[in-house]
Design brief:
- The complex is a heterodimer of chains A (111) and B (230).
- Chain A has 111 residues and is mostly helical.
- Chain A is 75% helix and 0% strand.
- In chain A, α3 runs antiparallel to α4.
- The longest helix of chain A is centred in the first third of the chain and has 25 residues.
- By secondary structure, chain B is mainly alpha-helical.
- Helix content of chain B is 73%, strand content 0%.
- The longest helix of chain B is centred in the first third of the chain and has 33 residues.
- The chains are: A mainly alpha (111), B mainly alpha (230).
- The interface between A and B is large, with 69 and 100 residues.
Chain lengths: 111, 230
């Protein structure tokens, strides 16, 4: 530990405050009347779809196209999940098999 | 069975993928903290208070460099800015949750948001308690994972390479489920494209806030056309 216990605790508090501000802010700013604003209602309806899109990209942000090893496992696994999910329509199966398939790819195929 | 245990029973299956992901990522976090000299107590405290996977990983750098709380605060705000989207999206669903609301907001991490938003409580199950238990279970999985990692320290051998993909798989499946409904495909594409373009322009460590601004901008600009999608 480089920091003292007190300093560590302060850092933990900062991380907590930072995270909580981002989570509570919309509920504090958009209370009551403003929550019924048609623009906010519209955003609340379309934003989740964009947010999941952002999240997928966020998870895959570390791939790069310089070396096939750095993007093929992700690409193949996502295509595998898509096919499996449209075929079987079973969420847990798609996630479980998709993950196992990816692990096989990164541990045995693309090493 | 009373209402609460029914809600717990209905909520649990939806948290299984997150259980796998959080136990693994939490354990990895605990091990990492251990290698930096932070024991299980600090790790679990951070997980219970800060509760945000990526921000906690980033926070390791604040703990292992010169004491700079303002920087820690600003970086956390940046890394977690995407939570603002989740809040706006949940305004309506959390409206009538009463005393459970503060905890639902406190625990609204990526994974909890993705499940709470996309899964509706089954018939006869109390919606608020259903969402509460999904949030609580995920919160506990993360703390449990951190504790396991903190206790095991460096004893564990890493043959679990790639297991963290479980969370990517979860988001991909939710994306596909939304896609299959045929509704709101354009907002989904806007989310993906804005993020990709912002990664290209701003780099992978700075793209989140520009991507959020781009998304809000495009959604606002195209409101007339997109409002008819659903």
């Amino acid at each position: 530990m480089i920091l003292s216990s007190f300093q560590t605790f302060i850092i933990i508090c900062m991380v907590t405050i930072g995270t909580m501000v981002t989570r509570f802010l919309p509920f504090i700013l958009l209370k009551g009347e403003r929550a019924n604003n048609p623009y906010i209602t519209y955003l609340g309806r379309v934003l989740p779809y964009s947010a999941i899109g952002l999240l997928v990209v966020y998870c895959l942000k570390n791939i790069n196209f310089k070396d096939p090893v750095n993007f093929l496992p992700e690409l193949i696994a996502v295509v595998f999940i898509a096919i499996l999910h449209f075929w079987k329509e079973n969420t847990l199966l798609s996630i479980g098999l998709g993950t196992v398939f990816y692990m096989i790819l990164v541990q045995m195929v693309f090493v | 069975m009373n209402g609460k245990s029914k809600a717990l029973k209905a909520a649990f299956p939806h948290t299984i993928p997150i259980f796998t992901g959080f136990i693994f990522l939490g354990t990895a976090y605990g091990i990492l903290m251990n290698t930096k000299g932070y024991g299980v107590g600090w790790t679990v405290l951070m997980s219970l208070m800060g509760f945000g996977g990526s921000a906690q990983y980033v926070a390791i750098t604040f703990l292992t460099s010169i004491f700079n709380p303002i920087y820690a605060l600003l970086m956390t705000l940046m890394v977690n800015a995407r939570h603002i989207f989740y809040g706006i999206s949940m305004l309506d669903k959390f409206k009538d949750t009463g005393k459970l609301k503060p905890f639902l907001i406190f625990g609204l991490c990526d994974e909890t948001f993705s499940v709470v938003y996309s899964v509706d409580a089954p018939e006869g199950i109390n919606k608020s308690w259903f969402m509460f238990f999904i949030t609580l279970l995920n919160y506990l999985y993360w703390a449990l994972g951190s504790a396991i990692g903190g206790l095991l320290g460096s004893m564990i051998e890493f043959d679990t390479k790639g297991l963290d993909f479980v969370l990517t798989a979860l988001f991909v499946v939710i994306f596909l489920d939304q896609w299959k409904t045929g509704k709101n495909r354009r907002p989904a594409i806007i989310g993906v494209l804005s993020s990709v373009i912002c990664i290209i322009i701003f780099g992978r460590s700075n793209f989140i806030i520009p991507a959020m601004i781009t998304i809000i901008g495009v959604l606002t600009f195209a409101r007339k056309r997109l409002a008819g999608d659903n």
